Amino acid sequence: MPTYEQTNSYSEFNYSSNDTVIYLDVKALMNVKPDTYILIIGLSQISENLETCFELIDQRIANFTSEAEINKENLYIDFISQTPIFAREREKKIFSKKYVEVPKGFEIKKNLHLSFTDGHLADKYIKLAAKNEIYDIIRVDYIVNDHKNIYDNLREQCVNLLNQYVVDYKKMGVDFVAEYTSMEETNSCTYPIARYSSFTSYMPTNYDPLLGGDTELNFVNPNEKINIFYNKLPYNNYDIIINPAVVEPVVQFSQSVKIKFVLKKKQ
Questions:
Q1: Strand (E) or helix (H) holding 77
Q2: HEC string of 90-120?
Q3: pLDDT tens readout for residues 174-184
Q4: In 10 A of CB 177, how many CB atoms?
Q5: Average per-residue pLDDT for the chain
């Protein structure tokens, strides 16, 4: 398991022979649950003719949306591709070894964009999608509505802590009477999709429930080696953590405020 050491540095003091420069730096982090989720799932359909292909894929989509009770305003069907399928056949000519491509059917691909506010609905949608032979989970977007209010809150928290540091340092005799001051700030937003990490599983995959008594079966599972987990931003680089105890993937907003005090030159 990864371990983290607390290495916060609240302030940095730089001195020169003629004047003194003091930097105070504060970083804050807020974990925010999303207001809306957008789940994107994909499906494809193959048929000998184009009309049947459209009918089959549209029927699967209709069955899924009906069973999942998805409102039309929360669904967008994204048409991805319409591709002919060819087969290579040998020409029926004496002494000929030439192969030609012959049209045999079509493949249509579509993506479904589902919007919902209750994160627990994702599990329901995925199960019903699989029931209708829709297996490709492309991504889940986490939408937070009011970024400005979050950054304003983080900035206020940073400024309050900086002011408290000034008061505390004055008690230790540090003089903050400055010729001028300057401030810089940065902020960022980290979404769950960027915070998944891989890990090694120590337990081998057990296929016994699928064997059915046939010990000669060989299983092919492309996901067998794929093990990932949600690895949120660690807290050791932040002075302020808002909503630290989270058990689900969240959107992580961070803010940094740095103040530079250029003190009066010593006489």
A1: strand 75-90
A2: ECCCCCCCCEEEEEEEEEEEEEEEEEECCCC
A3: 777 778 888 89
A4: 7
A5: 83
